[in-house]
Design a protein that fits this description.
single chain, globular, 4-stranded antiparallel sheet, binds pyridoxal-5'-phosphate, aminotransferase, Aspartate Aminotransferase, domain 1, 7-stranded mixed sheet, Aspartate Aminotransferase, domain 2, alpha/beta
Length: about 375
């Protein structure tokens, strides 16, 4: 059987899809280059790891590994609902918030529907809509690498099914403030579904100008869902667990129909509950990022590089020439960062905030590579 025949059986949308750039594993880099230490700075993981309570909770759940998990993740949804001042019927769990992005597209996007998102973009904000045959409109950031509100207002003038953006944004790190957020959502068509991806929520939650999306969205007519995750500030990226907070139980019910019934495994449910209760670990993780981000930013600026504003656990910066070539050279030093591959941003790299040691290794390697 030829590959051509297999392709003729597949959906055109699936064949045409670009592959999500999920980065290199430590192992792959170790094998190619003879390096002992890897500075993993490409995936925005928590350099402090997970709370010790999480390890205990997973161990406690391990003896029950033969038993299916709760398909409704009810205890966890109730805990999240309490924390967010909502009811559990408005909370939906995903195998990572990536899962929820896919489920939203499966449930709501028809071929030809228009989906509006940000450029540079989080890949899955357009890959999953494309999978359903959507038309994608992308709104570039402005020259300051901030949200271009007039651009969004123009883009939202046309009928649209989904409006998806991350706040703060990945990969740029820029943040819509209260006014900007209100302007953007007010410009969206009244019959679209607003998807606000707050993967980096915990890094901004206490900032005075970070929009309290749940309150602001509640008072407007459009259906909406706010996505958050345990992958970043909680340090559970390896367990795959994210959640959505929806405007209406009907959204949760539709997503329940299209998801796999046991999409959150037993260990992940136990881990997320434990992580949620260790507030101190999250605060420590956020404080670490804030302290290290400022220092890293100054060091990059001192090297003559342009650095985008960031309220998240990474920095987006511009290098002379191709970002991918710079990232490739950094691998030889055991440093993994993420080169941006979208047209117009191929000279930008994203580096995660890591341990102090890894940031020093990264800066020294970058200095050598750019010499
Ligand atoms: C990291 C990230 C996610 C993915 O989170 P998971 O819960 O690990 O799937 C979603 N959206 C954005 C914008 C992210 O940066």
């Amino acid at each position: 059987m030829s590959a051509d025949m297999i392709k003729s059986l597949a959906r055109a949308e699936a064949i045409g899809l670009s592959i999500y750039n999920s980065g290199l594993s430590d192992q792959a880099v170790r094998q190619r280059f003879n390096v002992t230490h890897i500075a993993r700075l490409a995936s925005n993981e928590n350099p402090l790891g997970a709370s010790p309570d999480v390890v205990r909770a997973i161990n406690l759940s391990a003896p029950e590994s033969a038993v299916y998990p709760d398909p409704a993740s009810l205890e966890l949804r109730e805990a999240l609902a309490r924390q967010c001042g909502m009811t559990a019927d408005l909370v939906v769990m995903g195998n990572g918030s990536e899962d929820l992005l896919k489920l939203l597209c499966l449930a709501f996007v028809n071929p030809g529907d228009r989906v509006v998102t940000l450029l540079p973009s989080f890949g899955l904000h357009h890959i999953y809509p494309r999978m359903m045959g959507a038309e994608i409109a992308m709104v570039p950031v402005d020259p300051r690498m901030e949200y271009d509100l007039p651009g969004w207002e123009r883009a939202l003038n046309l009928p649209s099914k989904l409006v998806i953006f991350s706040n703060p944004s990945n990969p740029v790190g820029c943040m819509l403030d209260n006014d900007g957020f209100e302007r953007l959502i007010a410009a969206a068509p009244a019959d679209c579904l607003l998807v606000v991806d707050e993967a980096y929520y915990e890094y901004c939650a206490d900032l005075a100008d970070y929009p309290d999306s749940l309150t602001l969205l509640r008072n407007q007519p459009r259906p909406w869902i706010v996505l958050r995750t345990f992958s970043k500030a909680y340090g559970l990226a390896g367990l795959r667990i994210g959640y959505g907070l929806a405007s209406d139980p009907a959204i949760v019910e539709i997503l329940d129909r299209v998801r796999t019934p046991f999409n959150i495994n037993r260990g992940a449910q136990a881990a997320a509950l434990a992580a949620l209760h260790d507030r101190r670990h999250v605060l420590r993780s956020v404080a670490h990022v804030r302290a290290q981000r400022g220092a890293l930013r100054q060091a990059l600026i001192a090297m003559g590089l342009t650095v985008a504003p960031s309220q998240a656990n990474f920095l987006f910066f511009r290098v002379p020439g191709e970002g991918a070539a710079v990232a490739e050279k950094l691998l030889a030093y055991g440093v993994i960062v993420k080169p941006w591959l979208e047209t117009g941003y191929r000279d930008w790299l994203r580096v995660s905030i890591g341990t102090e040691t890894d940031q020093q290794i990264f800066l020294q390697a970058l200095h050598e590579v750019l010499k």
